[in-house]
Structure formats: structure tokens, C-alpha cells
Queue: 3 jobs
Job 1
Amino acid sequence: MTIKGTREIFIITGESSGDQHAAKYVREHLLLNEELYFSGIGQESMKDEGVSLIYNSEDISVVGLTEVIFKYKKIKSVLDLAKKYLYENRPALVVLVDYVEFNLKIATYAKSLGIPTLFYIAPQVWAWRENRINNIIKVVDHLAVVFPFEYDIFSKFSNNVTYVGHPLADDNELNPSDGKYHDKKYDLGVFPGSRESEIKNNIYTMLDCIKPSKGDSPDYSNIKIFYSNDKTKELLEKMLPVSLHESLKSGKDREEIRQCKKAITASGTITLELALLGIPMVIVYRLSSITYFIMKRLVKLKYIGLVNLILGENLGDEMIVKEYIQPKYHDQVEIMAELDKIDNDTAYRDEIIKKYLEIRNKLKPGAAKNLAQIANKLIF
């Protein structure tokens, strides 16, 4: 229920990174106007900033077509809950953070109610469904993008597009370690993803690659496995042997991440964080067979990792960081070889780090502050 005398902003995000980005925006907007009231669907970071959550989105954080089908009833019930809330409370603005398919349905409904919408972190239709851009522009009042190449694409279709910068550019904790590579505490950091489906699809594949060579037993003695929240920690504890439970660490503990020599990681925002922390990585990502079959025919880009998208000369056409999508057995051998090369080829490792240093220069700071200013204009 909206507090009397305030304007309400309703926020929706479906995953851990979006939740953190939304929380930073809330903090900045309250600096502009402390009388605002925030409600929404999100996770712990939003809640910690004082957002009144009507639902915790950890339960509906999925990726992939078949994965969505398995959770369809739950997702549909939360979609209906959000629509009911909008109809009954009529907030001054709806801010939609990533979580594309769900949020575009909400944008369409909000428009039917006359409620303005601000979409933050643009739908990545440029990767596979550029023909949908016009449909998005029709239902979103303003689009706030986080990469300059996204602005170039979306601004062809609308004037209501702003390149606000990337939220990670303002994170002062995202700096490389001062220590030498071989002085770091951990041989490897494992980042299996922030969603339940990602972890189930990726964790065993990743762990099976931690071998000196094919046929050897994996060496887990000096690795750390990073989880995004309490729910994913519980899932990993159920999936992993007890002997690995002590290896689990919070993905929010940047100092522990900084102590990893290298990483094997799922695709997503974490790849950008690792690059800013100066940690060489290999991207390993597995989807359900049906989802992969469909996506392979839709996605236009050769490479999908954010580091490769940002640093490549042509969008998605150059590999700075090795990617293994839907890895097969022979890929496992290549992954082991790549991890070994990172460890033992100093010149190769230094070249990766040199490339990483270019990223910060390509990311514009001030995303949350700029987003707050746009939101303020939409409601006043």
C-alpha cells in the first residue's frame, strides 16, 4: 500500500545481478527525492534498500525455454500477482530491470493502465530477435541501456533511449589484486551461475574440467565455488559432496574472488566482474538440449560472453576469452588445456589482463544516478 503523500515506484527484477543493480538505483533516487516509496518484485539487495517486496523473485529466476516451461505455473502466478498490484495501487512509475519476457508482459499491461514504464538493461534482442525492437518500443516509455553499442542499435527505432552507463563502472571494489598471480590463495574460482537451472546444468561439467589431464582425478583441494544467494548455496550443498561444502563462498565477497588465480564461469554479468577484477577466465555454459537446439538457430552472434562483446571489434565476432557453449567431451580436454595455459604461459596471461584493462575505459560510470534522473522526469 502506498504511503500517503508519496509517489510510488514499482520495480521488477528476476535475478541476482538485476536485484543488485536495482538496489543501487533505489539508493540514488532516494538521494534525489527521499519522499518516494518503492515496492516491487526482487531479492535481498532491493529489500535491504527498503523496497517493499510483494514477492521474492529467486523462485522464478530461470533461463532457457524448457526451464521456463517447468516453472510456468509459478511464473504465471507471479505475473498475475504483479498485474493485480498495479491495477489496485496504480504506482507513478514501473521500473523494469532485465528479466525480459516477464517484464515486457508487465510493460504491456502497465501501458493499458496508463502507467509509464522505464526499462533498465535493455532486452538483448540485437543478439537474436532484432525484429522485435519495434514491439518493445511500443510498450516502453523509456529505455535505459548499459552499453554504447546498444544505444547505436535501439536509437535507430526511438528517441526515448539513453545510454546511462554500466552499474559495475561505479563499483569501487572491482579492482585487480595488487599481489602476484602465483601468490594468490586459490588455484581456481568456480562460478556456476545465479539461477537454479544454470547451476544444475553447469556445476558438474565445470568440476569435471578441474584435472591436470584427461583420465586423472579432479583436484578440488584449492578451489572455491561461489554462490549468489542463500537459496543457491542450499542447492549447491544438496548437489555437492560434503567434502566440498567448505569450498563454498559468497559471490558478494569480492576479496575472496580477488584471491582466485583464474576462473571457470557461466556466462553473464559475472564475466564482466571477473574481468574488472583482473582474473583470467574460461566461459562454460550448458543449456537443456531443447533450449540449445532452438537458441542455436536464433542467436546471430558467434560469441556471447560480455567480455567478448565489449572488447571485440565487431559485435560478438571476436573471442578474447575462450567460450565453450554446450561443451562436449573433447571440449573438456580443451578447457583443461586452457586453464593450464593461463597458469603457465605468463605472456598469454599478461595479454588477457592487458585486454581487461581496456574494459573499464569502455564502460561509462554513473548508471544508477543517470537512471534516477530519468525516472524523476517521468514521474514529475
Note: Residues 1-5 have pLDDT under 50 and may be disordered.
Job 2
Amino acid sequence: MRGPVVQRDKETKANSGEFWSFKQLNSLVMRQIICAGLGIYVDLRINDAGSIQKFGRLQMTVFKSIAIASALVAGTAATAQERFITIGTGGQTGVYFVVGQSICRLVNRGTADHNLKCTAPSTGGSIANINAIKAGDMDMGVAQSDWQYHAYNGTSEFEGKQFDKERAVFSVHSEPFTVVARADSGVSSFDELFGKRVNVGNPGSGQRATMDVVLNAMGKSDADFALASELKPAEQSAALGDNKVDAIIYTVGHPNGSIQEATSTVDAKLVDVNGPAIDKLVEENPYYAKATIPGGMYANNPDDTETFGVKATFVTSSDVPDEVVYTVVKAVFDNFDRFKGLHPAFADLKEEDMISAGLSAPLHPGAEKYYKERGWIQ
């Protein structure tokens, strides 16, 4: 039903000579639409000259209503155009949290141009992030390269739960599998952890899953520890300092705040993770590689620590629109020097490595588009 007609002034004739040009047409039509939404109908007519002839003088109150409605509709339209994306990270003391926060910082600097707004909350880590992306609860997330592989291929923890829509975006820093033990625990090698109190990591985290892989490779399980605690990264350093555990494990980029806390508050040593079982893991799995944590990086640890590790990778789903992924990738690589300065673990990153190293799922088309524009891939 048409709303009440705003009558033109009876003294004003059709040929009153008051015209609007086509330059004003869009604004005028929008006002007419707004008026219709308010239940007001404005009597307009297009004359032979191609301009709009306005019949009558509208009351000032109607103009005010139109102005208010225009502002409301414009505000609503602007809000409707904004898209919010969520990036899964890890514990607040870990580098994953910094990765997500850094990406969001760069994305949000350009919100006025692309209308994307980004948040990166703390999460349970790699597997939790992948499962959240699969469920549609998150758009993107950080995950260890091994769990990216297993999710896409439906192996290990993802057996029977394959995520074939998983897509790679880029990789970030290397992440050595790190063991820190109290000096008074008597632990100087990985084998000496058995029979001790060890924090194996929280369920859903990549470090916990990788610990399980290492234990399986050695023919061991959590039952071989005197205590297998499941503390989050933010809790484990304090537990080590308070003598609630003898050792903690962490798959993380270095330097790391949690490890720095652990080694500065108590006499603690980084422990080598090597031997035949580790050699076999690295040989049989392309997402693993030998790694060295440089000596002198942490207090009271002057010597290099030999271990193995993975890559931190950034993943998404094929369900996430190409333009969204493209915008995120562009925000990072168009501001690459700024990104590298946001954490010491990023300092040595190279663009050519990030678009391929540790990536086993197919590239998302949005990322692929940007890399082709830069001439990095064909």
C-alpha cells in the first residue's frame, strides 16, 4: 500500500520552472525510496528535457525526516558492508598469538579501504584452530605444518575426520620441539623424562599432538611419566618454577617469552631431542626437519640444543571467499618489513619461503592470485 501523498502547493503550477539535473538524480531517487520506506510518497515527474520537475513545496518537516532517514540508511549500509573475520592463534605467551595479532593489526590498518575487520583471540592451538575452521567458527588460523598435512589427508589425529576443504595461505617461522627441564630433576636427555613429572601440553594443541607422535615413535605413552599434566602454555613456566613439574615441552618459535620466563626464574636447561626414533620420524615425514636452538638465547643455556621441528603455517578453508583471503595476504606482504618487525621470530622470514615451505594443502585461490600478481608463482 502506498503511503500518504505529500501534496504539492496548489499555487505552484507544473511549469514552475524548478528543475533538478541528472547529476542530482541518484540522490533524489534515493530520497524517494527512503520516503517510501517511511510511508511518505513524493510526487515527482520527469519533464521532456530529461530533468526532474518537482511539483510543490514539501514541508520542512518532511525534508528533516528524509535527512534523518538518509543518515540512518547510510549508516546501516556502511555497517552491512563490513565483514568480520576471526583468526585462530594459540596461548597468549606463544608466537601463534603474536602471528594472529600481527596479521590483524595489518588488516585493520586498511579497514576503511576494504571493509574487513579482524580479530585474533587466544585458542587451544593448531588442532583446535583447524577444527574451528572446518566447523565454520573461524575463518583462518595458525597451525603446525604436520597438522596441516594430517588434516588435509585425514591421517593421524584426523583419521576419519578429513578436512579436504583445508587450504594453505602461507607459512611463517620454524618451530623446534622444545624440552625444558629443571636442573635439579636430573634430566639431560629425552629418555630421562620417563618416570618424571612432565607437562605434555593441553588437548587440542599442536605441541600435545606432537608429543604423542614422539612418544609413539619411542614405544612410550603418557603412562610412562610419574605425572602427565595438561597445562596450557601460559601456565607451564610457573609450574616449572614452583616445582610442580620437572619438565615442560613446547613446539614454538624462538625466542619465546614462556621459555625465557622458565629459564630466568629457575635453573633450567634445554634438553636435546635426538636419537634413532627422531631420525626415523624426520626421514619418513616431509613436514619435519632437524632444528637447532642457538646457544646463548636463554639464561644459563650457553650451548646449542639439537632437536627437530615443524613450520608454523597459516591456513583457511575453500569456503572463505577469494577476496577475503586476497585482502589478508596483501595486507601482510604489502607491509612485509613492518610484519617482520613485530616479533624476533619473524626477523629472518623470506617471502619466497613463506609461499611454499611447509605447505601441504593446496593454496587458496585468493592467496594464489596475489602471489601471481607479484610474479612469485606462475
Note: The chain has two domains: 5-81, 83-373.
Job 3
Amino acid sequence: MLNKPFCSLWSIGFRPFFLLAAASSVVFMAIWGGLIAHGKFPQNYYNPVSWHAHEMLFGYTVAVLSGFLLTAVKNWTGRETAEGAKLAALAVLWLLGRAVPFMANILDGWLIALVDLAFLPCLILYLAIPIWQQAKLRNVPVLLLLLGMFVSNVLFHLDALQLTAIGVSRLSHLVIGIILIFIVIIAGRVVPFFIKSGSPGSIPVVWPLVEWVSVLSIVALMILKPFYYGSYAFLACCALAMASNTIRMTGWYCKGIYRLPMLWVLFSGYLWMIVGVSLDFLSVFDIVPPQLALHAMTAGAIGVLTLGMMCRVSLGHTGRAIKANAIILAAFLSINAAVFFRVIVPLFIPSDYTLWLTVSSGLWLMAFLLFFIYFTPVLLRRRIDEA
């Protein structure tokens, strides 16, 4: 049955979840853009800022992580994660989590919270079984990070239900920190390999000590920023994270990468993370607004890297050459331009801040619309080498 056109959607995790991620990114940003331009926001379980933060992190980003991990864990362990009816049920559960906040006028808040909270435990279960069967500790941190995201989501809902007063800002920083840990761990696994395979003759340099410091400094920032922002320890970790991750990226760099969009998009996303940490450091001294650092890490590091990885995985796992055509290149340029207008331009022309938000939102929408339009038929059909 899975060999028929369109039934391939449920054959492996990246197919439905990358489509859901791209579609949700467009819808979420259109709603947020409408709020910026017209001040209108649909009745919701969350307030507007909380909804934007929650859905970009636990909606869009979790969808990308789900698609990537359901596919990667299958490759790492040689065992199935979720496919067919199980995968479809998981996708429906994710969709329900996105829909129920707009039903706050007919559903109790605790029920909305339970529906949204159900997704991550199910995902963890589907990933934990093959990891447990393989009995290799190397993949266990993935489960621990997902568990951390689930706990963060619980806290998010307790805050939305006014049962705690942690605040959306602290909770967002906590979740962003966990996602950045995902990024530095996964990047260390895949980027050097991608460089070797995508740029023949290139030999990226990997220093074990730098690898450890790069990851541990981001872990320290995740712990410090929500509760000890501005402390000497926070500033020291910022400096360490900036230095170690810059050295790490320098070691990966090989001549000619700028001619290969499938590689430079990963470099640009990683660079946005370093920019975000640098702006975080400067924001302590009121040199730059903290929101610019936040969006360098979210729209920049998370947005650019996830789009790049979605394109790469979607091409490679459907039997296609991992090369960027004009549409993919336009998407990569568009999302980087979106971050530039969201983070860099307001530094120098803050008076037109709302204009830059609108331009950035439009460029973000363009990037993910291009992905959705180009990759929908790719993800719905069989691998081309199986056709």
C-alpha cells in the first residue's frame, strides 16, 4: 500500500512532519503578522505573545525535531520508530495541539493543556523503544532533551493557567536553550560528514576539547539565562560559548563552501547562534535590546538550520541529489534576509522597527512557502529510485 502515490507520506517520520512544520510556520507567521499590522488576534487560550512563543517552539520546532529524530533514530539503530497508522496518529495528535488553543470558548483550559502535552511523551516512547533495544548510551541524551522539553511545556501550561508565575520570557529562554543544545550536538555529528560528502577533498578539523566546551557552554547558558541573566557566571559562559563555537565553526570551514548552498545554509544558521550569544552578552550592558539576541537564536539559528536540514533530509531520503536548485536557493536567501531585517537592521535603524518586523515576516513566509510548494510532491511520493 505504501508504494502507491501519496501513501508514502506515512512511510517515515520526516515526510508528514516536515510538511506540517512548513505549513504551520506559514500559518503562525501570517497570524502574527496580522497582529503586528492590524492589532487583531483570534480568541485564544494563550495571550498573543505566549501563543507566538509557544507555537514557534512547541509547534514548528517540535515538528521539525520529530521528523528529523523519527528518521535519524531509525538510521542510527536500524530499527523502526513510527510508520503507517502510528505515524498518522502522532501527526493528528500534533495537529490537535495546534488547534485546541483556538477553542478556548468551548473547552476548559486543563483539557487544552492535556491535549497539547500528550504529544511529546508519545514521541519519546516511539524513539525510546529502538534506542533501548540497541542499548547504546550515545543516543540517550536525545531522549533526555525531549524530556526536558516536555517538562518545559508543562511549566508553560501551568503559567498559562495562572497556576505559576514563572513568566513566558523565562520559559521561552529555557526551551530555546534546550533546542540550542540539540543544535550543537546534532551539528557536531552531521556537519563534518556533510562537508566531506558534499565537498570532495575537504577535510574539516574537529578538536575533541573544543567539541566538549562548545556543547557544555551552551548547556550552562541554558541553565543560567532564565534565572541568572546578567550574572558574572552568565557573562563568562557567553564568552566561552562565543569563543568555542567560533573555533569549532572555523575548524569545519573548508575552501569553496560558499559555492555550495546546502552547506553554507548550515554555516549561516550556526553563525546566527554565535551572533545571538554575542548580542546576549552585549544586552546585559544595555548596548542592544535583548529581543534582538532572542531572535538571532530563534529565527536565525533555529529557523535557518531547520530549513536547511529539512531540505537536505527531504532530498537525500527521497533518492534525489543533495543540491540546491533555484527554488531552494531562494528559500535559503529569503530566510537569512528575514533574520537580517529582524536582528541587524533594527540595530542601526530602530525608528522603523515595525516596518522591519513586517519585512522580516514577509521574507519568512516566502521561505517556507517556497519549501512547501516545492517539497509537497516530493514528500508525498515514493523515492525516485523506487519508482
Note: The chain has two domains: 1-166, 192-387.
